[in-house]
Amino acid sequence: MNKEKLKVAIVGASGFTGSELARLLSDHPKVEIKMITSESHQGKPFSELHPQFFDRLDIPLVSAEEVSKEELDVIFLALPHGVSMDFVAKWKDSGAKIIDLSGDFRLSTKEVYEEWYNKKHSYPEGFATAVYGLPELFSEKIKPATLVANPGCYPTASILSLAPLFAKQLIKENSVIIDAKSGLTGAGIKASATTHFSNVNENFKAYGIAGHRHTIEIEEQLGGLAGGQTAVQFTPHLLPVDRGILVTAYAQVSGEMDQERLTEIYRDFYKDKPFVRLRNQAPGIKDVRGSHYCDVFPVWDKRTNRVIAISAIDNLLKGAASQAVHNMNLMFGLEDAEGLAQIPLKP
Amino acid sequence: MNKEKLKVAIVGASGFTGSELARLLSDHPKVEIKMITSESHQGKPFSELHPQFFDRLDIPLVSAEEVSKEELDVIFLALPHGVSMDFVAKWKDSGAKIIDLSGDFRLSTKEVYEEWYNKKHSYPEGFATAVYGLPELFSEKIKPATLVANPGCYPTASILSLAPLFAKQLIKENSVIIDAKSGLTGAGIKASATTHFSNVNENFKAYGIAGHRHTIEIEEQLGGLAGGQTAVQFTPHLLPVDRGILVTAYAQVSGEMDQERLTEIYRDFYKDKPFVRLRNQAPGIKDVRGSHYCDVFPVWDKRTNRVIAISAIDNLLKGAASQAVHNMNLMFGLEDAEGLAQIPLKP
Amino acid sequence: MNKEKLKVAIVGASGFTGSELARLLSDHPKVEIKMITSESHQGKPFSELHPQFFDRLDIPLVSAEEVSKEELDVIFLALPHGVSMDFVAKWKDSGAKIIDLSGDFRLSTKEVYEEWYNKKHSYPEGFATAVYGLPELFSEKIKPATLVANPGCYPTASILSLAPLFAKQLIKENSVIIDAKSGLTGAGIKASATTHFSNVNENFKAYGIAGHRHTIEIEEQLGGLAGGQTAVQFTPHLLPVDRGILVTAYAQVSGEMDQERLTEIYRDFYKDKPFVRLRNQAPGIKDVRGSHYCDVFPVWDKRTNRVIAISAIDNLLKGAASQAVHNMNLMFGLEDAEGLAQIPLKP
Amino acid sequence: MNKEKLKVAIVGASGFTGSELARLLSDHPKVEIKMITSESHQGKPFSELHPQFFDRLDIPLVSAEEVSKEELDVIFLALPHGVSMDFVAKWKDSGAKIIDLSGDFRLSTKEVYEEWYNKKHSYPEGFATAVYGLPELFSEKIKPATLVANPGCYPTASILSLAPLFAKQLIKENSVIIDAKSGLTGAGIKASATTHFSNVNENFKAYGIAGHRHTIEIEEQLGGLAGGQTAVQFTPHLLPVDRGILVTAYAQVSGEMDQERLTEIYRDFYKDKPFVRLRNQAPGIKDVRGSHYCDVFPVWDKRTNRVIAISAIDNLLKGAASQAVHNMNLMFGLEDAEGLAQIPLKP
């Protein structure tokens, strides 16, 4: 890696993911943001959409067509599912590496995608090259990748809560229940009844019961870790907070277990993963807010012979934008923590 | 029941439960509040502790010793666990019926109590006379009772989420996981790090993992419904809202099941229970806030062969104060809904 | 007043005001809701729009055209500004009394309306018959009225904070500053960037600086009390809460003043007004939430020779729906507090 | 300035200010945290008090007595009012520069302090050497200072809202009203009824009406800017959010004014102040959260002949910790923005 900065484009400026990418990349010492695109807001300063950037990032938004005209090192796609795939197809040979934050290349095959996303896939060839961008599991595959599928927010927290046990093939089949709770930013920036303050504030509810599409992403990754298939029960809920995912995962294990052994398994698995913090008490989502950390806390309940594993992340960061930056760091030989060392903001 | 109003005392004025009892009983057409007691605030107007009552309930607080001097129909004990038992012993022959909102008489025996509450019980004789005051299950026993143990907030929501299946003995042993989330008022009015705004707001965390004392209360009641014992995995979490409990319960069932049959089982079980609303979509806690309702929504997941049952209550009402009033109504031959017909306050 | 119930229609079901009217009128002992209208949701049960009413108010929504076909005592118009006026014109001779919750008839003349609302008025004749429905000031005019213009939420809190001083002509010209803060429901049920959770939660901002249309409503009423014109500086802000308005009003007074005299002036003015509570400490908006109360607290600052008067209301109730019900009670010879005696819901 | 890092101590670890100082200084490229003190938590890791620092700042807390034993460049006092003064006296000749975040040296004299803080001052000599640490006004005095009194949170936002007009002597006497609103962290980390979640959440109220001690701090600074004395009406309110202060300031001006001239005056005054952002729309507190910015927005209301000036800061940062770091940067010849370049965290 020479001294020159990486030239990056952020495609899709209007959402929370785009704005968090812009925030992290603005402060990243090895990056230069060459452009941010938005079709509907072309010409407006980026800070007009996101006033917190006033006087910091006032560059005018441009059309995605400008991407082809510039020599870039990385393209971040902060686009909705179903839109991203076309841009991946378009820019796959542009010389830039692509980090796609949508769900378009997270699953194993076109067939699985089309079943769970209920939508035709326009670039199925991408599945062969796409690498699932969860550095705690796949850093060696991510490094040489040209297309990284940045994991979903729920899957990131869910997979990291149980990965050490799956990797050791200790989980009993069909025993996994993942009860997940997310802050409202997970629902996106679009104004709707779902995101109306009065429907969220002082409220709490489940949604996507028995059918949320993150289920299959979790199943494929956890199953893969154990060398097979697995089924998980996944139920997301909407928290009246801006940021944060807390996962409470339940599982039965095969063989003998106690708290000491359980902690040891987690410590081993995460010993070289600087962003997973093995906690000795239940983490709250505010303990990781504004940071790239995933806090994990596994408990053994001898009364019920079950593991309860808690994990907490900032859904916009470890669950999206900072994970994408971590992937970029790996893909370009930078330090893991470059630009990602923020201490959580609390309170 | 003649035209005269029931004379009631509320023992314990300072907490949320005492204040909600006062609010409901003030507006109850068949009740006269004769006194509200507080040892530490004697002489102060009730509204000084709870300013929302200014100009509405300004009566001076008195010592609990005044209770013995008055002829009362009902005594509500809104006291901490471990304190209530002594007053029950003291007033058991006073002629007044006692509704105890603490946990002191909710369990089956002194032994179970002492194991889970880690505290000596001073009036074990009470267990024989105490009736568990969950009207949806025990209205016939509640009517003649002289001592009612008002259920815990989490147990109320948890039991009602799965009672129809336990009553039909359809639940597979050791398959039940209850992931519960409560508003902060469940933690009480005492100022502490736990209740400090900055630790709650924008935060969310689990607590009491694998050992919360409401576990045994749920197990005894659900087990009893099925005519035996049962073990449940119960994990409470703290929501950054004032009021509300949402329970997400998971269970495997024996025998054939589908959504239609599941709904039918719930509809049958709750058909004469005016305060359980069988919903056709996932309820939020705000749908029941300020009311006596318990909203229930059972889902069959054929992919995993599991029931996911959601229930929502206002923890201070159906989980405490209005349930106590409901019990009073039953004990004195009043209509179930007398004084309890509030439509939820939303938003 | 005979035993028969008042037959009422609520025109406009989808907003918060309509839903609060439905809640209050459902429980009002002298009222029968004959219909609730919605053009866009005709045929749907009311509870489908507002799930808290599930099992309580499931009547199908009808077109506003049904209003003419029924003999009604009262029509509540819960419609946007600019829409209401046409329905007032249409139903003015229907025999029903009209309570309009929009801003269409709150001001003195067509000219003033058109200047501040920037919109042509289609029924200017209405200004002559409309009575400004603030019972604390105009109960005698409201009783015989056939058209009542229900006050705005900010004006209700603002006027009541300073009315005693204006009525005594003690306010110095151009000295009044009203710094007002409202919960988000004041912005309505429509999904937009303004009402998106992530723009409201943990945020706070001013809006409508130096030009909000409630300014003129406040000026006309306070000026009228003093027998002349007045100018007030009015600045609204958006609070990250559902309900409540807090007004902090500042004014200089003519003549001698001290705290005792100030309190006395307020006590005199509000002595027969059951819903204004003169507090002896600063009220919070939660002290009145869910109730019809307006809490008022005037302070004399001798250091600066200024009055600081605080008032708190529930914007959806005293600021809208319960004020409308209060007006109905007056118009039909009912008790002021009929159906309006709710104790505030706190916490 | 050579390459060596500044050696700093943070005295007072338990509060929000101490924890934010630790966060900023941990990431500051020119600083080494030598110790953090706490009398009541000696020996515990800092991260035990503030779990967000887990794995990042786990150094054991030491007694304040350790401060004297180490050669330090800067001592930050994050202590309560009335406690700080003794440590200033003790360490004034230690060779370290002192930045005091309490109110003990913010005012002009012992007499003024004792009147407004209602407390005897033990080190009145300090007033002569202390410099008021508001860099936008006093950077030249701060640079050589050995004792800096870091401004209060409310005064920072209040002074910056009106400083340009006071500096030009354009403000009419006794016309200034500052209506200020602060997030709950301003009330500190101590558990009390005031900080209990249920008293803050969904609530809003004024406090300290007509007597808050920040009044005199604002008056001294604004008066000083205009070369004389001034009186301001200052009313603080408590917002149900963690962080942020929004000030809405009202004033009458002498001479001709219009929006263009007003904007120009502000632009001139703040043209070389990198952390004051002159906004063209009303800022919300979330636009500056997590950052060192003060956003300012002045409006001219020609109808009332009044200026309304809005300012927004993060009370824990520009209102406390980052302002202290800025002062340190100035005192040691570092760049203004060293360690302070965080883009606001939104949402």
From TrEMBL, chains A, B, C, D:
Q: Which InterPro entries match?
A: AGPR, AGPR_AS, AGPR_dimerisation_dom, AGPR_type-1, NAD(P)-bd_dom_sf, Semialdehyde_DH_NAD-bd
Active site, per annotation: C153
UniProt EC number: 1.2.1.38
The protein in question is named N-acetyl-gamma-glutamyl-phosphate reductase
| Record-stated family | Belongs to the NAGSA dehydrogenase family. Type 1 subfamily.
Q: Which GO terms describe its molecular function?
A: N-acetyl-gamma-glutamyl-phosphate reductase activity
Q: What does this protein do?
A: Catalyzes the NADPH-dependent reduction of N-acetyl-5-glutamyl phosphate to yield N-acetyl-L-glutamate 5-semialdehyde.
UniProt cross-references to HAMAP family, sorted A to Z: ArgC_type1
Reactions performed catalytically = N-acetyl-L-glutamate 5-semialdehyde + phosphate + NADP(+) = N-acetyl-L-glutamyl 5-phosphate + NADPH + H(+)
Semialdehyde dehydrogenase NAD-binding domain mapped to chain residues: 7-145
| Pathway where it operates | Amino-acid biosynthesis; L-arginine biosynthesis; N(2)-acetyl-L-ornithine from L-glutamate: step 3/4
Which keywords are on file for this protein?
A: Amino-acid biosynthesis, Arginine biosynthesis, Cytoplasm, NADP, Oxidoreductase
The record's subcellular location field reads:
Cytoplasm
Q: What is the lineage of its organism?
A: Bacteria, Pseudomonadati, Bacteroidota, Cytophagia, Cytophagales
